[in-house]
Amino acid sequence: MSTFTDSAKKSMDKAIDALKFNFSKVRTGRANAHVLDGISVEYYGQPTPITQLAGVKVPEASMLVIEPWDKTALKAIEKAIEASDLGITPGNDGVSIRLPFPKPTEERRKELVKDCNKYAEEARVAIRNARRDAIHAAEKDEELSEDDVNREKKQIQKVTDEFVAKVDSMLKEKTSEVMEI
Q1: Which residue range forms the structural domain that includes residue 41?
Q2: Coil vs helix vs strand at 55
Q3: Strand partners, 48
Q4: Fewer CB within 10 Å, N side or C side of the chain?
Q5: Which of 68, 100, 132 represents a domain boundary (last residue)?
């Protein structure tokens, strides 16, 4: 593979990683520790991710349990969760924090699917932008003949099609997960 295709692939891989991250934040009614990834707790004056302050367990499909290693951080973790956009009320028992994940309503699930479609489209756009940039770079390269440029374009398009198919398959999987009752 050429350097143009390789650079396009790297950019496309980043788009897939961003899509995975965005999908991990979508609540499906199942407990998922990744919903805490974007939440930081003010701990000794420093914003610190919850996962660096506590153990996160999933004892059952609809419950997350956060057990801080330093019990003085319990209140701060609870406040950070309440202030976040999770929409879950944490239960503090003095030792750990329980996050119950209620099953989303039909209407809410449809909204979540719309969010997933938006994230997938953003990934597709990023992939197409990587394709455009790689093709543009190949066309600018004066050492390549016209036939070489056309070969590059075909190779880059092939890789683009593979990545778009990957996005579509990830979206289909996430949509079925969200719509599952």
Answers
A1: 33-100
A2: strand
A3: 41
A4: C
A5: 100
